[in-house]
Amino acid sequence: MNVLWVYAHPEPRSLSGALRDDGLRTLRALGHDARESDLYAMKWNPVVDAADFGAAASDDRLVVGDTAARAHARGELSPDIVAEQEKLDWADAVVVQFPLWWYGMPAILKGWFDRVFVKGYGYGVRGEDGRTLRYGEGRLAGKRAVVVLTAGAREPALGPRGINGALDDVLFGLHHGTLFYAGMAVLPPVAVYGADRVSPEHFAEARDLLRTRLSTLETTEPIPFRTQNGGDYDADLVLRPEHAPGADGLSVHLTRKRAG
Hints:
The structure is a single chain. This protein is of the alpha/beta class. The chain has one domain: 3-Layer(aba) Sandwich (Rossmann fold). The chain contains 7 helices and 6 strands. It has helices at about 15-30, 65-75, 80-90, 105-115, 165-170, 170-180, 200-215; strands spanning about 1-5, 35-40, 95-100, 145-150, 185, 190. Strands 1, 2, 3, 4, 5 and 6 form a 6-stranded parallel beta sheet that branches. The chain is globular. The protein starts with a strand and ends in a 45-residue tail after the last helix.
C-alpha cells in the first residue's frame, strides 16, 4: 500500500515523535511505500486566505468554498496545497497523528484540512446523476484512514462515563464529519492514554499496539458509519425512524454497535 503519514507535533523527541518514527519504519518493513507530511517541520501555513486561490480570488469577494472550487477547477490553488493533494491522490491509506489538545487537533492540523480538503476536492463533489457524494462517497472513497493520538487523560476519563466523554464521541467530528464525509473508510483509532507520564513499559505497549494496527491496515474493519446515499436517511438527511428506533445521539449513525 501507499501510506501518507500526516504528523502534527512540534517536538520530534516527544512520545508522538518516537511513535511516528517507529510507525514509519514498521510500514516500510512490511513492504509499504510511506510518505510523510510533518506539518511543524514543513512550517505549514494553517490559515486560509485569498493567496490560496490565485486569480480565482480576484473574481469577486472571497467566498471561500466557491472561490476554492474555481481555483481547484482551474489549477490555480497554491503550490503547497496542490502538493498535499497529490500526496493524498497517491495514498491508499492515511495515518493522521496528533496530540489531543482541547478536545481536538492542534491548529496546524485543522488548518491542513481547511486548506487541503477544499470544495471540489474534499467536498462539494457530485456524481454523474447529480447527487452530492459525501459520507462514504466522494473523491477520496476507496482510501483508508486511521487516527493515532496521544492524550494526557487516563483511559477511564475518556471512557463512556468519563468526565472527558467517550473517545469515539470526541473524535466524531474528525472521523465522521471530515474523513468519512470525504469518502474515506475510517478505522478505529490508536490511542495512547496518560501520555505525559509514560513508563518504558507503557511505551512498549503503545509501540506494539501501533505496530499491530499498521500490520493490519489493509484488513481492519472500518467503523460502520451509515452512508448518506444508502437509503438510511430521508430527504432532509435525518435518519429514518425504522433505524435505531427510539434512540438518538451520535451512535445512531452506526449500522451496528462497535465491539468493545
